[in-house]
Amino acid sequence: MKIIRANSYQDMSRKAANLISAQVIMKPNCVLGLATGSSPEGIYKQLIDWYNKDDIDFSQVTSINLDEYVGLSHDHEQSYWHFMQKHFFEHINIRQDHIFVPDGSNPDAEEVCRNYDQIIQRFGGIDLQLLGIGVDGHIGFNEPGAAFELGTHKVRLQESTIQANKRFFESEDEVPKEAYTMGIKTIMQAHKVLLIASGSAKATIIRDALYGPVTPQVPASILQMHPDLTVVVDREAGALLP
Ligand code: GLP
To answer: Which of 67, 68, 127, 234 does the annotation list as catalytic?
Structure first.
């Protein structure tokens, strides 16, 4: 595990974007596992900026996103599909048929999850998996108690996740209660994992995830076992690290 300490959110974003950029330069047809949330927004901004300066080319890249809310279609403003288009894909030259997000509008969980695992396999697995972390230690939407050996599956969101994510919706009632998420098994099979965290609300969970016991109660703690994990934290998120 390599921990990179950044001074600020912007510095974290730039450092993490550098690592993603290096991946794309080293392997132009790589598969990126991308993430939503506030944490990666700065990374996407930075990558768009480098794309506009002709420093990075996404024409051969494939993106396979981590998760999606059940019940939200692509055109729903809070769907993760929409988030990714708005914050990243619309601004770069990635092919639309190289973009994958679990289909939240399909209620047939078995079909959605089976298809998604087949897509991941068809592209040869994920080269670089970008991850944020939930305040309860979730990665993707793998909530505490999630089995480590699962592929893509449907989950019920924890109350703390609904509370944390309600800021994006008009009211708490509108926050979906379920999601499709890539499983921890798939995340652990990624060749490289890049975990980012920003802000004081993440300090305790980042410490527990990286230095506490490896337990399904803290899903991100399994990342301690990943052979190629890089963590980029800003000063606040890294405040409790040794
Ligand atoms: C959501 C996503 C996660 C993300 C987490 C943290 O629940 N499913 O992938 O890591 O939020 O989000 P933020 O970066 O906004 O704190």
So the answer is: 67
Tens of each residue's pLDDT in the chain, 242 residues:
999 999 999 999 999 999 999 999 999 999 999 999 999 999 999 999 999 999 999 999 999 999 999 999 999 999 999 999 999 999 999 999 999 999 999 999 999 999 999 999 999 999 999 999 999 999 999 999 989 999 999 999 989 889 988 998 999 999 999 999 999 999 999 999 999 999 999 999 999 999 999 999 999 999 999 999 999 999 999 999 99
Residue 63 bridge partners (DSSP): 32, 99
Judge whether 132 and 67 are in contact, CB under 8 Å: no
For ligand 1, atom 11, name the residue with the nearest CA: 37
* Global pTM exceeds 0.85: yes
The gap from C-alpha 25 to its chain's centroid, in whole angstroms, comes to: 21
Domain 2-193+201-233: which topology? Rossmann fold (3.40.50)
What are the boundaries of each domain within the chain? 2-193+201-233
Q: Is residue 55 annotated as a catalytic residue, yes or no? A: no
How many Cα atoms occupy the beta-carbon half-sphere of 151 within 13 Å?
A: 15
